[in-house]
Amino acid sequence: MSAPFEERSGLVPCATPWGRWYQTLEEVFIEVQVPPGTRAKDVCCSLQSRRIALSVRGREVLQGKLFDSTITDEGTWTLEDKRLIRIVLMKTNRDAGNCWTSLLEKEYAADPWVQDQMQRKLTLERFQREARIICLTFPYLHQNPGFDFSGAEISGNYSKGGPDFSSLEK
């Protein structure tokens, strides 16, 4: 079984003072470095549809209005190795055109180069997903299941997720 697209194509992280964040078509990942030995009871994390608040040992680390909405019930946080908090948020809008330009509305924006790389990755992820759907729709393509865009290069206009093929007739 092959690895998920995100693992094969790598991450496009946006560095922050407390760690980093990155995204896929469906999720936003936040990794916060915390002092070694941090325990779960030292962490206070509130995840809402458009807001996030994280404090560790009474110190605010991250707080504000998210760039876009998320599904509250599907947001999670974990403490890994007593030194890293990983937060996973499920995007409400999960298409390639919904590339978050920042984590919060007014903070932690990706620089233009990183933003460009994030958009390319989401576009490739979308193409990979659509190729899978095509293979399921046309069974004879299963004989050549080599639709792997993880190493592909995109040129041209891919803003807002690339070309829209949804209007093409079947």
What is the chains' assembly state? single chain
Instruction: Estimate percent helicity.
Output: 10-25%
CA radius of gyration = 18 Å
Order of helices and strands: HEEEEEEEEH
Structure description:
Interacts with LIS1. The chain is built from two helices and eight strands, in the order αββββββββα. The longest helix is centred in the last third of the chain and has 26 residues, at 112-137. A hairpin with a 2-residue loop joins β1 and β2 (19-23). 26% of the residues are buried. The chain starts with a helix and ends in a 33-residue tail after the last helix. It has one domain (5-137): Immunoglobulin-like (Sandwich). It has a five-stranded antiparallel β-sheet with strand order 1-2-3-8-7. A three-stranded antiparallel β-sheet has the order 4-5-6, with no helix packed on it. The chain is 18% helix and 26% strand.
In short:
The chain is 18% helix and 26% strand.
Descriptive key words:
170 residues; alpha+beta; Immunoglobulin-like; 5-stranded antiparallel β-sheet; 2 helices; 8 strands; elongated; disordered N terminus
